[in-house]
Design brief:
Protein name: DUF1775 domain-containing protein
Largest sheet: 5 strands, antiparallel
Keywords: Membrane, Signal, Transmembrane, Transmembrane helix
Strand order of the largest sheet: 5-6-3-9-10
Strand content: 25-35%
Pfam family, one: DUF1775
Radius of gyration: 39 Å
Number of helices: 2
Distance between the termini: 142 Å
InterPro entries: YcnI-copper_dom (IPR012533), YcnI-like_sf (IPR038507)
Length: about 240
């Protein structure tokens, strides 16, 4: 194979490699955006929302994150080492409208090439199939990225999509604050009470049976003693004769 033929074969291979690299880079860029998850949250309910925040900068750490909330009655950020959180409320309604996390001085924030998770516990969330939680990510060099763009009408993802939560309808088993309901607690208490009553009855029966056994034992020993005494008396009279 001469050099000219080798160059002819190498050129298409190089082009394919470049195209593949470009495709992978594009996929990585599209996937690396702020997202939100809440597996246990339902419409009109309370729950924990997790914001996954990757650092897309090649030179600076993420130092601030702000997420906009749908006017929640209650919302509390999880304690995070190295971060300070600020809850913003509507003055007229006292509903929570946003939460901001800021990296404390001397801490790394979200370093280049890494990600962090920011959690919120709150509610009640709107009774809608899905809600957007627009977020603003700020880097240490001053760059600011707004994750607030809606999905395209054709389903295409924009460059900076807003985090979206899908909210299923509640199953109707009870409240949204916990996994159990009042009826479940009542049933559990009744079962515990029944178990305690049964144990007490069995314990009482055991004591009665034990007492009767002791009485019968004493009576049997008394009868045995009398029989032995009578037998001894009879044998003694027979020898004297």
């Amino acid at each position: 194979m001469n050099n000219r033929m080798i160059r002819c074969l190498a050129a298409p291979a190089a082009a394919l490699s470049i195209a593949a690299a470009g495709t992978l880079a594009g996929a990585g860029a599209a996937a690396a955006h702020v997202s939100a998850t809440a597996p246990t949250l339902t419409q009109g309910g309370y729950g924990v929302v997790t914001l996954v925040v990757p650092n897309e900068s090649e030179t600076a750490a993420t130092t601030t994150l702000t997420v906009t909330l749908p006017n929640l009655k209650s919302a509390r950020p999880e304690v995070m080492s190295g971060w300070r959180s600020t809850v913003t409320k509507d003055p007229s309604t006292e509903e929570v409208t946003s939460i901001t996390w800021s990296a404390l001085p001397g801490t790394p924030g979200v370093p280049v090439g890494e990600f962090a998770q920011f959690r919120i516990s709150g509610g009640p969330f709107p009774e809608e199939d899905s809600i957007a939680l627009p977020a603003t990510q700020t880097y240490g060099d001053g760059e600011e990225v707004s994750w607030s763009e809606p999905m395209g009408a054709d389903g295409a993802e924009p460059d900076h999509p807003a985090p979206v939560l899908t909210l299923p309808v509640a199953d109707g088993d009870g409240g949204h604050h916990g996994t159990g309901s009042a009826s479940d607690e009542t049933t559990a208490e009744a079962a515990d009470s029944s178990t305690d009553d049964t144990a007490r009855w069995l314990g009482g029966i055991g004591l009665i049976v034990g007492a009767l056994g002791a009485v019968f034992g004493v009576a049997a020993l008394t009868r045995a003693g009398r029989a032995a005494k009578s037998s001894g008396t009879g044998e003694s009279g027979s020898d004297d004769a």
